[in-house]
Amino acid sequence: MKIKISAPEVRRKIETSAQSSKVSKEKLRIIPLGGQEEVGRNMTVFEYEDDIIILDMGLQFPEEDMPGIDYIIPDIRYLAGKEKKIKGVILSHGHLDHIGAAPHLLPRLGWPVVYASKLTLMLLKKR
After folding, report:
1. Which H, E and C letters describe 49-68, residue by residue?
2. What is the pTM assigned to this prediction?
């Protein structure tokens, strides 16, 4: 048995469906603060309305042409004045390119809640 639906019927169903669903005007902003064009320094901010979640706080080891620099951490100027909006920091795993900057950045951001595995938290405490 074949069911025939005409193009106007399909269009009407789509329009009715679109009208009945509410689409939020708010947008999720994804702001990479590091880890894009380099190995290390991984840190990404997810911002939705007045809430911020941070994924990772990694460091980057310097190149050979950077004498005197021990490590590089993400630039967090974007978060200045937004510390109270930070709902938490998720640390994906215990590699230094994902957790190495946390001891430097967490106090500057008001000590937000950190979500991580037990192993990752233990590695962080050793830093």
Report:
1. CCEEEEECCCCECCCCCCCC
2. 0.76
What is the structure's pLDDT at 67? 87
For residue 66, is it within any domain? yes
The tokens for 120 are 């990752």
Q: What angle do CA 44, 49, 50 make, to 5 degrees?
A: 85
Locate tokens 């509410």: which residue? 22
Cα separation, 91 vs 54, whole angstroms: 8
End-to-end CA distance of the chain: 68
In a domain, 6, yes or no: no
Banded pLDDT at 2 (limits 50, 70, 90): low
Distance between CA atoms of residues 126 and 97, nearest Å: 15
Give the structural domain span for 35: 23-125
The count of structural domains within the chain is: 1
